[in-house]
Amino acid sequence: MSNQQFFVLVIGCAVVTWVPRVLPFAIANRLVFPKKFNQFLNYLPLCILTALLVQSLLVFREGQWPLVKIPELLACLPALVVGYYTKDLMKIVIVGILCIALLRIFL
């Protein structure tokens, strides 16, 4: 594969990734949604983040109950406390990363 083909491939991948993520926001900003629909949309980020959190804290195996990942759960608790009091995503991420790093070092 030549450099030019590789460059075209990277640009193509960027466009394919960008369009479905950005285009809906550009279109939705110009539309006026009903009040009930806006209330529903306000809960989507919370639902998505909760689903991601639960998925990262549990191990799912077919035919068994989910198992809790103890280090991830222990790192999650201080991050949740920081999130409750600060409501700052950067602080939450930093606390979560520091906690999981410290747990992996010492456990």
TrEMBL record:
Keywords for this protein: Membrane, Transmembrane, Transmembrane helix
Residues that span the membrane, as ranges: 6-28, 40-60, 89-106
Highest taxon of source: Bacteria
Identification of the protein by name: Branched-chain amino acid transporter AzlD
Database matches in InterPro entries: Brnchd-chn_aa_trnsp_AzlD (IPR008407)
